[in-house]
UniProtKB/TrEMBL annotation:
Name of the protein this chain belongs to: Xanthine phosphoribosyltransferase
Assembly and interaction partners: Homodimer.
Function: Converts the preformed base xanthine, a product of nucleic acid breakdown, to xanthosine 5'-monophosphate (XMP), so it can be reused for RNA or DNA synthesis.
GO molecular function, one term: xanthine phosphoribosyltransferase activity
Enzyme class, first EC level, given as a word: transferase
Source species taxonomy: Bacteria, Bacillati, Bacillota, Bacilli, Lactobacillales
EC number: 2.4.2.22
Residues where 5-phospho-alpha-D-ribose 1-diphosphate binds: A128, N129, G130, Q131, A132
């Protein structure tokens, strides 16, 4: 998606060999106009799949996921990373090793919000090693729901997540695909 690539070129900052910082439009400050456009793009890419629910992980997946859900006219559920007093005891959980934080998070979805047979679209901000998407896949499977595909805002093709999801036969759509970081600059795939 050209608009997103331009925004990454304009505002993204490369950290070290493999991390992109996009905290002024996606990961901290959020650009709602851009998020609405990303959400619309995901909705167009997956509309034919008759989605019942959009699932993401807090916090950075929420903005693009909610706009995709708005456009598809379905609910959006975000997996929580921390237990809360308000969370019921009846949950689906999965362990996710965080690439950026280098720690394992327990992701949690209340069983009331994911039902057997529902057609679920996963959304996340980044695809690196595929751990977040895999954790959400485990939760979808545990709920006996049906995984329709994964929409990713920014995929880093040089990390192993995409290959993992391709092997699992998952329909993945990424709005920007980064092939490499070279001398602090982003090189897009294709
Ligand atoms: P994965 O689970 O695919 O290894 O990593 C995806 C998760 O790690 C995303 O949910 C995102 O929060 C975080 N992440 C991975 N790579 C990057 C990156 O280059 N920049 C930022 N800001 N987050 C990333």
């Amino acid at each position: 998606m050209k608009l997103l690539e331009e925004r990454i070129q304009q505002d993204g900052r490369v950290l070290g060999d493999d991390v992109l910082k996009v905290d002024n439009f996606l990961n901290h400050q959020v650009d709602p106009q851009l998020m609405a456009q990303l959400g619309h793009e995901f909705a167009e890419l997956f509309r034919a799949e008759k989605i019942d629910k959009v699932l993401t992980v807090e916090s950075s997946g929420i903005a693009p996921a909610v706009f995709a859900a708005l456009d598809l006219d379905v609910p959006m559920v975000f997996a929580r990373k921390k237990k809360s007093l308000t969370l019921s005891a009846d949950n689906y959980t999965a362990d996710v090793f965080s690439f950026t934080k280098q720690e394992t998070n327990h992701i949690i979805v209340d069983k009331r919000f994911l039902n057997a047979g529902e057609r679920v679209l996963l959304i996340d901000d980044f695809l690196a090693n595929g751990q977040a998407v895999q954790g959400m896949m485990e939760i979808v499977e545990a709920a006996d729901a049906e995984l329709v595909g994964a929409g990713i805002v920014i995929e880093k093709t040089f990390q192993k997540g995409r290959a993992l999801l391709d092997e699992a036969g998952i329909h993945v759509e990424s709005l920007a695909r980064i092939a490499a970081f070279e001398d602090g600059q982003v090189v897009f795939a294709d």
